[in-house]
C-alpha cells in the first residue's frame, strides 16, 4: 500500500503529461493493484474526484436510514418496473426507426470504423429529430423533469474566450469543431443527444450491443479499443482530428462531442484533459454538466452499472444543470501547443462551473477502486470493480 501511495503526487509540476496519440491507460494501467486497504481514508483524500458523497456511500453500499430504506423499497416495487418498461419501449422504438432508415444503405467503412453518419435527406432528418425527441423523453422518464440550461455563460467567460483567441470583430465567426464536456455519468450522453445529437468516441464493444449498437452507428461514433496497445491509437487520434476538422469546415458534417477527461468523476472536480479534442486547432464549445442531489448522486463512480440504474430509477426526481459557454477560439500559441489549449479550456470550465482542478488520472482511480473492492471482499462481499469509462468516454 505504502509503495503505491508514494506514486501519488497532487502537485501539477510532477504530474505526467499524457501522450496525445496514446491512451493513458495503456502506459500506466499495468501497475500492480493494491494488496492492502489499511488507509482508505487517506486514499479518499488523494482521490477525492472519484469519491461518492451521497447517502448511499462508496460502491452504493452505505448504511441507509430507516426512512431511506422504506422509500427505496416502495420505489423498487412501483417506480422501478414502470420506468424500466417505458425506457425499454422508447429504446426499441428508436432502434426500429434507425433500422428502417438504414435499410438498403451501406455503412461507411474506414480506419476500422463503421457508421451511418453519411446518410442525408429524409433518413438523416428522421434519425436526428426522432433521436433528440426520444432522448429528451428518456431523460423525463428517469426523473429529469426539468433541466436547467444556461447559454453563453457569464461576461467573464465571454471575455476570456474572446481574448484567448484570434477572432477579431471584423472577422466572420468560425464554426466550432467539437463540443467538449466534463464527464460524470452515462446520462451525459443522453443529454447531449437530446441537445445537439453529436457523434461520440465509444468503446469498440458498443457497436455489438443489441439495440444500442445500431444507434451508435447512426450517431457516427468513433470506436476505440481501450485495452489495445497497438499503434491503432495513432489511427484513432487521426480519425478524431479529421472529424473535428471536418465539423469545423463543413456545416453539414455531424458534430462531435468529446469528454477530454477520459473517465467519469463525482462531478465536483475537473481532472486532467487529454489533447485529442484540441489537435485539430479548431474552436470548441465548452459545456459544464452538474447533477444536484440530496439522496442518490447520478455520478457513475464506484457503483456497478446495474446497481446504479436501479438506484437512479428508484429516485423519483433527478436534477441536472447545464452551462453552455461561448465558443472558445484558440490563439496562435494555443494552436501550436494542444496541451496549452486543453489546459486553458479546462481552467475556464473550472472557473465557470465552480469545479475543483485535480491532476490525478485513471491510474489513481484504478488504485482507489481496487482498494474499495478489497475492503469489501475482506468484509464478506464479493464485488469486483474495474476502473471504467462510460461507453462514450473519449480516451485520446
Can you describe what's shown?
- It is a single chain.
- The strands form four sheets. Strands 3-10-9-4-7 form a five-stranded mixed sheet. Strands 1-2 form a two-stranded antiparallel sheet. The protein has a two-stranded parallel sheet with strand order 5-6.
- The protein is globular.
- The protein is built from 14 helices and eleven strands.
- The model is unreliable at 1-37, 165-172 and 381-389 (pLDDT under 50).
- The protein has one domain.
- It has helices at 2-5, 24-28, 40-46, 66-77, 79-101, 121-141, 155-164, 187-195, 212-219, 232-249, 305-313, 332-336, 338-353, 362-378; strands spanning 108-110, 113-115, 147-151, 178-181, 201-203, 222-224, 257-258, 269-270, 284-290, 320-324, 356-357.
- It has 396 residues and is α/β, with parallel strands linked by helices.
- Residues 20-31 have a biased composition (Basic and acidic residues).
Jot down its keywords:
396 residues, alpha/beta, five-stranded mixed β-sheet, two-stranded antiparallel sheet, 11 strands, 10% strand, disordered N terminus, transmembrane helix, acyltransferase
Q: How many individual domains?
A: 1
Along the chain, the helix and strand elements come as HHHHHEEHEHEHEHEHEEEHEHHEH
Mean pLDDT: 81
Give me the count of strands: 11
Helix content: 40-55%
Give the structural class: alpha/beta
Strand percentage: 5-15%
Distance separating the two termini: 30 Å
The Cα radius of gyration reads 21 Å
Amino acid at each position: 500500500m505504502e509503495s503505491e501511495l508514494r506514486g501519488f503526487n497532487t502537485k501539477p509540476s510532477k504530474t505526467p503529461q499524457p501522450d496525445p496519440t496514446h491512451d493513458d491507460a495503456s502506459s500506466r494501467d499495468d501497475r500492480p493493484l493494491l494488496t492492502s486497504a489499511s488507509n482508505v481514508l487517506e486514499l479518499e483524500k488523494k482521490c477525492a474526484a472519484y469519491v461518492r458523497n451521497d447517502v448511499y456511500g462508496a460502491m452504493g453500499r452505505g448504511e441507509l436510514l430507516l426512512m431511506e430504506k422504506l422509500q427505496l423499497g416502495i420505489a423498487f416495487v412501483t417506480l422501478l418496473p414502470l420506468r424500466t418498461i417505458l425506457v425499454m419501449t422508447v429504446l426499441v422504438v428508436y432502434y426500429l426507426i434507425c433500422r428502417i432508415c438504414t435499410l438498403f444503405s451501406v455503412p461507411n467503412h474506414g480506419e476500422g470504423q463503421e457508421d451511418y453518419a453519411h446518410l442525408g435527406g429524409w433518413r438523416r432528418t428522421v434519425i436526428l429529430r426522432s433521436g433528440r425527441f426520444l432522448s429528451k423523453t428518456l431523460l423525463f422518464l428517469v426523473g429529469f423533469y426539468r433541466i436547467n440550461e444556461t447559454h453563453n455563460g457569464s461576461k467573464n467567460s465571454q471575455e476570456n474566450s474572446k481574448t484567448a483567441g484570434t477572432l477579431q470583430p471584423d472577422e466572420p465567426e468560425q464554426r466550432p469543431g467539437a463540443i467538449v464536456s466534463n464527464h460524470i455519468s452515462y446520462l451525459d450522453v443522453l443529454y447531449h443527444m437530446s441537445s445537439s445529437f453529436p457523434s461520440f468516441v465509444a468503446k469498440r464493444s458498443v457497436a455489438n450491443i443489441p439495440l444500442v449498437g445500431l444507434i451508435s452507428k447512426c450517431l457516427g461514433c468513433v470506436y476505440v479499443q481501450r485495452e489495445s496497445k497497438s499503434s491503432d491509437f495513432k489511427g484513432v487520434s487521426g480519425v478524431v482530428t479529421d472529424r473535428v476538422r471536418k465539423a469545423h469546415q463543413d456545416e453539414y458534417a455531424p458534430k462531435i462531442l468529446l469528454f477530454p477527461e477520459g473517465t467519469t468523476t463525482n462531478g465536483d472536480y475537473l481532472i486532467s484533459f487529454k489533447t485529442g479534442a484540441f489537435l485539430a486547432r479548431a474552436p470548441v464549445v465548452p459545456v459544464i454538466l452538474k447533477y444536484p442531489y440530496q439522496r442518490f448522486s447520478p455520478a457513475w463512480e464506484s457503483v456497478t452499472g446495474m446497481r446504479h440504474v436501479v438506484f437512479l430509477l428508484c429516485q423519483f426526481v433527478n436534477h441536472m444543470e447545464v452551462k453552455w459557454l461561448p465558443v472558445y477560439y484558440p490563439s496562435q500559441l494555443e494552436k501550436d501547443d494542444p496541451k496549452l489549449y486543453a489546459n486553458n479550456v479546462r481552467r475556464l470550465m473550472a472557473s465557470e462551473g465552480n469545479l475543483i482542478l485535480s491532476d490525478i488520472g485513471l491510474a489513481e482511480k484504478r488504485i482507489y477502486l481496487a482498494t474499495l473492492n478489497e475492503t469489501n471482499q475482506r468484509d464478506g462481499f464479493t464485488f469486483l470493480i474495474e476502473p471504467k469509462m462510460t461507453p462514450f468516454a473519449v480516451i485520446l
